[in-house]
Amino acid sequence: ALERGIEPLEVKPDVCWQLPIRRTQEWVERPDGEQVLKTTVTEYDRRGWGEGGADLDWYCSGSPDAHVGAKPVWQSYAPELTELLGEAAYRELARLCKRRQGLGLVAVHPATAVAEKNPR
Description:
Layout: H1 14-18, E1 21-29, E2 35-43, H2 73-76, H3 78-85, H4 87-103, H5 110-117
Antiparallel strand pairs: 1-2
Helix pairs in contact: 3-4
């Protein structure tokens, strides 16, 4: 797909391009009685698969080998996150990530820390 100038998410089944990102949605009632749709985006780790998820040897988002990208996920996974969140929400996410990155307050994923200590 990339060789043809097409984003992989345009040709892959949804479940393939959405992993390792997990999106959950729930309606939340505010104190004034208004309901809003709350969307949470997080890592889809083995626990997300429920009972038996630890047995999924092939699922590698927690492996240091999966944490060697040159860019943060919010940048390298921009097309996928934009598709999941919508353009306006992704722009806001990117703005917040840029701001936070500049503050030096970014928590490092444990697998990223291992990958940085043991470069290939």
